[in-house]
Design brief:
24 helices, mainly alpha, two-stranded antiparallel sheet
Length: 674
């Protein structure tokens, strides 16, 4: 294995062109592996352009470079497919990602590049050909965080964007890791090691910003798992006992060849999402089994739990039962965590360093449900909860700390707001103030997202009134910091090239599509066939349950085990979406159009051939008529009927010439030559 060589950076902070060419070469080779007939895409953003743009003092040259940057922005938007969710013949993601991350190094008015990259990483589908470009983005983002952002004494909006982009990159890398696609990228993982170490040691500088530290800890936790499995583990060899005994006790589901174990909570969340998507009747039973494994949410392996909440949140946007299950999971989690922290003997078991990650992740998920759920009932429930005895106006009142502290009776936005606000203090638990911070931070983002939505005026007014009461009531500097950070993030520089600006024309404040993409990809990993229904029995049937409907036979006791040992190649594990009705209809229509187009082309070709033949015939006819006219004029002038330069035989030599085959060529003479 080659030794790791860090990228060469000049004094202006721009990565050298040699390193740039090596990385782009690997990106292009991977992206054009299945499309070798297409020409190699061009890459026009050079190191010289970035240096000239950042350090020019000539106004004329600055305007010229800005105009060139406008064209590059427009072209990159087209290559990213921002309006088509990353699909289309004009989209080339590896090239566009590389161009955008380099264009983001330009200072001044070029601030939309990071927004474009964040939107693209949010909505594009999963394709293993994107892996070289993803590693290139990961290294570039980590480099800017470690070498630029950490050297600053203040928090900048670009730093928040870089952390959010890094979160999406490592989230995608973890999903590819579950599929077993990272085994051939050990060199890329080694390149990330120095930056990950630097990020780990700089982590304490973000402790007072939960919105940033949550993403940073996700990056570090994901990289820890991936690097531990891919760099330090031996090749996974399945033992004979594991293959022969399908009914052995198993606490987790093994997915890839490295033997990574996924807990039942994530598996059943994906099963619930699949039931909602395919309208299957097993949804109720799957949700019961999911609640049966709710204790797995309280383990320190919180990465699977965060993914489970994300997938279940996508199902909650479509189904009320899934939303209730999601809220019940988090309610039970908070009650157990906070009660355990009050008991000194169990405090070490429930460490708040991971519990606060779950709480902050949930606040973002429930805010997305409140914004993007399919029905108004789902959005209203996510905001105020299931209790119908309360009016919305009563729900936005904050509890005075001097009064009796309310109990936690749900996990809606306003319920959590009231619960956390009543318990926050200088020495409160970390889960309390981070949960309060997350609710306030996401309320500001929700208010911004709802600007211009006339059909959501009631929801936006309620959120606005809640924020006003928080500003008037809350004096804790950590919570007021959440208001400031969210407003500074949203009021950052907008796109300077957009002529018609709207209230939410800048960066999307929430990741709208990544949860749906992950749920779809994991459902195809756990359930390779669309017709495979989720299991009707839980993984463990021996444990007692409060409500047992029917008695299960011991012979039917099974342990579900998933090892992708049969999928040896990447091509066999398809990660592209299965075609639905509209996709098939579009493909059939395209075939019909191509068929008629071919017939039109053949008819046009026949017409062109007939036209050429007719033109040739007319040309020959004109030449014949022209020759006849010339002969008539010659006969009229010279009184000769012979053709010009016709061979005339001599009378004396006619006999001998006929024998020998020689002829005499004589010029024609005029009639009065005698």
């Amino acid at each position: 294995m080659k030794a790791y060589k860090p990228p060469v950076v000049n004094k202006f902070g721009v990565i050298s062109s040699t390193y740039h060419e090596e990385l782009l070469k690997s990106i292009f080779e991977s992206s054009n592996r299945r499309k070798s007939q297409k020409p190699k895409p061009s890459f026009s953003i050079s190191k010289e352009f970035i240096l000239r743009f950042n350090h020019t003092d000539n106004p004329a040259e600055e305007e010229e470079l800005l105009e060139q940057a406008r064209r590059l922005i427009v072209r990159s938007k087209r290559k990213l497919g921002l309006k088509t969710l990353g699909s289309g013949k004009h989209v080339h993601l590896p090239t566009a990602w590389a161009e955008v991350i380099y264009l983001a190094q330009c200072k001044g008015e070029i601030q939309d590049a990071l927004n474009m990259l964040h939107a693209s990483l949010d909505h594009v589908s999963f394709d293993h050909d994107q892996l070289p470009a993803l590693f290139f983005l990961a290294e570039s983002v980590l480099y800017r965080l470690c070498c630029d952002a950490f050297m600053k004494g203040y928090l900048y909006s670009v730093e928040i964007k870089l952390v959010k982009i890094g979160y999406l990159i490592f989230l995608r890398l973890f999903v590819f890791f579950l599929h077993g696609h990272l085994e051939s990228f050990k060199q890329h993982l080694l390149r990330l090691q120095p930056y990950l170490y630097a990020l780990h040691f700089s982590e304490p500088s973000y402790y007072k910003y939960p919105n940033i530290i949550s993403n940073v800890q996700f990056i570090l936790k994901t990289s820890e798992i991936i690097c531990k499995r891919e760099l330090h583990s031996e090749p996974f060899v399945e033992s004979p006992d594991e293959t022969e005994d399908p009914y052995s006790d198993l606490n987790h589901l093994q997915l890839n060849k490295r033997g990574y174990e996924v807990n039942h909570l994530l598996w059943h969340s994906v099963a619930a999402w699949s039931c909602v998507q395919n309208n299957r009747p097993q949804l109720t039973e799957v949700l019961e089994h999911l609640l049966f494994y709710k204790t797995q949410l309280q383990t320190k392996c919180w990465l699977d739990s965060a993914l489970a909440l994300m997938v279940l949140g996508e199902a909650a946007k479509l189904d009320m039962a899934c939303l209730k299950t999601l809220m019940d999971l988090v309610t039970d989690f908070l009650e157990n965590i906070l009660s355990a922290q009050n008991q000194e003997e169990n405090y070490n078991i429930y460490d708040t360093s991971w519990a606060s990650e779950i709480v902050f992740t949930y606040t973002t998920i429930i805010a997305e449900v409140c914004l993007y759920a399919a029905t108004s009932d789902l959005r209203k429930t996510a905001l105020i909860g299931f209790c119908a005895c309360k009016s919305p106006q009563q729900g936005i009142s904050l509890t005075d700390k001097s009064e009796e502290l309310p109990e936690l009776d749900g996990a809606s936005i306003l319920t959590l707001l009231k619960y956390f606000s009543s318990r926050i203090s200088d020495n409160c638990e970390k889960v309390i103030w981070i949960g309060y911070y997350g609710i306030v931070y996401n309320l500001v983002k929700m208010s911004w997202e709802l600007q211009g939505e006339q059909d959501q005026d009631g929801l936006r007014n309620m959120i606005w009134q809640t924020l006003q009461k928080i500003k008037d009531y809350e004096q804790d500097p950590r919570i007021r910091c959440a208001l400031v950070i969210a407003q500074a993030e949203l009021n950052g520089p907008s796109d300077p090239f957009c002529t018609k600006a709207t209230p939410n024309s800048g960066e999307e404040v929430f990741s709208k599509y990544i949860g749906w993409r992950i749920a779809t990809t994991l459902s195809r990993l756990f359930f390779p066939s669309l017709d495979v229904a989720p299991p009707k029995t839980p993984v463990e049937v021996d444990l007692p349950r409060k409500h047992t409907i029917r008695e299960r036979q011991p012979a039917k006791k099974r342990v579900l085990r998933f090892i992708l040992k049969d999928h040896s190649s990447v091509v066999e594990v398809s990660m592209t979406p299965y075609p639905n009705f509209f996709t098939k209809a579009d493909k059939k229509l395209e075939e019909i159009i191509d068929h008629h187009w071919q017939k039109d082309m053949e008819a046009r070709k026949r017409e062109e051939e007939a036209y050429k033949a007719q033109n040739q015939k007319d040309k020959e006819e004109k030449e014949k008529i022209h020759f006849q006219e010339i002969m008539k004029q010659r006969e009229r002038k010279l009184n000769k009927q012979t053709k010009p330069y016709e061979i005339i035989l001599s009378e004396k030599e006619s006999g001998s010439e006929k024998k020998c085959g020689f002829f005499e060529l004589k010029p024609s003479t005029a009639p009065n030559a005698k």
